[in-house]
């Protein structure tokens, strides 16, 4: 019994196959070259800090603690104000004390006794003159040495002494009143000056406290202005760095495009070659029981001739 086997071979045009093989060789050579050279896709790059951002950082570092001298100065001034306030309060101590009536003695006229004595002496001289007049009148009346004359002289002497006593009392009372008034005026004036000094000291202390707060506020204001400058620099610096980063990204994209272009071209060719239609051929082999050598030779010759004819039809040779 004879059996036959049929083989179907699908092939492309030999020229297309040659192009595809060449494409594979070129691709392998290209990739091997890239590996040997260490070629790789372009790295991502990050833009450095812009000059404005660097200036902002430097300003921020320089501004750390810059307010401290102002705080120290303000604190010292406030301390001076506190000390002045304490001194003003202390100066008011005793301003509510009562007047000492005995203090008038410090204001007595040291010449008062001498003045009084002079006044008494003047009265005595006037009394003596009056006494002489009484005696002259008694002599003229013939009553000198009599009881009437003595009575008149005694009355005159009593009047003189009474006048001396009244004058001395009035002068001493006036001196006492003047001394008391002077003492009271001095006391009130002293208390007023002391209170005024305390008030002025308190006002000065309040002024020093306000000045200290203003001095400390200068440090706060300086820090605030420095922060505003830093924010402005950071804003402009971020814009500058953004532009630099966009340039780096565009450069990487261009380099990446140049890096991948050969792959795109090879892939484009591969797509073209993949879309080329293929041809087909059929080979048939027949087997039979053992025959004579002559028949075998004859059958092989016929099969070979048929195969050769098919190959020629396919353009293989």
Q: Which quaternary structure do these chains form?
A: single chain
Radius of gyration: 70 Å
Main sheet strand line-up: 1-2
Number of distinct beta strands: 2
Q: How much strand?
A: 5-15%
Overall, the morphology is rod-shaped
Give the domain tally: 2
- Measured between the Cα atoms of the first and last residue, the distance is 34 Å
What structural class do the secondary elements suggest? mainly alpha
In short:
This protein is mainly alpha-helical and 317 residues long. The chain has helices at 14-37, 51-63, 68-91, 112-141, 147-274, 293-313; strands at residues 3-11, 279-287. It starts with a strand and ends with a helix.
Lay out the secondary structure.
Elements: E1 3-11, H1 14-37, H2 51-63, H3 68-91, H4 112-141, H5 147-274, E2 279-287, H6 293-313
Antiparallel strand pairs: 1-2
Helix pairs in contact: 1-5, 2-5, 3-5, 4-5
Structure description:
This protein has 317 residues and is mainly alpha-helical. It folds into two domains: 3-51 and 244-313, no CATH class; 65-243, no CATH class. Helices cover 76% and strands 6% of the residues. It has helices at 14-37, 51-63, 68-91, 112-141, 147-274, 293-313; strands at residues 3-11, 279-287. Strands 1-2 form a two-stranded antiparallel ribbon. The longest helix is centred in the middle third of the chain and has 128 residues, at 147-274. The two termini are 34 Å apart.
List keywords for this structure.
317 residues; mainly alpha; 2 domains; two-stranded antiparallel ribbon; 6 helices; 2 strands; 76% helix; rod-shaped; disordered C terminus
